[in-house]
Every structure is written in structure tokens, then in C-alpha cells.
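One chain given next:
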Amino acid sequence: MVISCSPPWRKSFDMEICREGDALQISDLDPFLAELLRQIPHSTNPDGAPAAKTRLFSQPSAEKEICAEWKSYVEPELRRLFRSATETVAADLAELNGNEKSLRNRTLHIPLEHADAWLNTLNQARLVIATKYEFSDEELNDHGRSPLGSRRDLGLFQISFYGFLQEFILRETSA
């Protein structure tokens, strides 16, 4: 399957995304999309954005005792799970390090056994980006958005691109 990732009024760049045996593959990467992929682990970091931390580690109740137990017993395991998933994705993305000019000849291989880590990490990144930029539901659902003119616009594009990857991973691992 070939996916066009740009509006028709822009020079299109295509990438191929498919399942091959026990792996998902993303190939024919444009350097811009490769950079967005490389930013996934960094995008999960909620430091400097208290609202993003609150979103990732939301309180289960208004009761202080329940929240205290949650913070003691559940939150450390969530942090470990998030860190482990992000480390797995970062290791998979190591294939994209190096010379930008040769990216069109590279293929990113995502082992199917890493699918849950990718889904987890992409979800973290989307939540953190959406919270940092305070995107409204209307903005998040506006798929005919104008060109990238600011860092905020890029953040919205990242959320859409990461959501597309989540959808593909879910479709291919559910088949």
C-alpha cells in the first residue's frame, strides 16, 4: 500500500507501509516523515508541561485515599510501562539514524511483537502534544488544515500522523 502524506497542492511524498511476515515496514521515507518518526520518543516527555503529566497520570477518583493508593501502587507501574514502551520504540527507530540522503533506500522494520509498545508510545506522544498545545476537539478533527506555518501546526500534524500509524498497526495486528 502506498500512502500519500501531503495535500494535493503540495509536492507529494509517498511512503510505503505494509506488513511483511512478522514485521510492519515503512519504506520510501521522506526526510520530514523520518524526522517525525524519530521524534516519537522525545514527544512522550511531559516535563515542563504539568497538564500533560496530569493527563498521562490522571487521578482515578476525587477521594484522597484512593488517589494516594493509586499514586503508590499504580502510577509507578504505569511509569515503568511507559518508559519500557518508549525504549522499545527508540531502539526500533535506531534504523533511521544516519545520513538523511539515504532515507529513501531505508525501511523501518517494526516487529509485530513490538506493536503494543508502539501503540502505547504513540498514544503517549499524542496525549502530550495535544495537551502542550491545548488543541480543541475541533482542531483535532480538522483534517483539511492549512499548511504548516508554526510549531503548533506541526504538533497538530504530528498528532494526525501518529494516529495514522496507530490505525495501521491496529489494523495489521488485528487481521
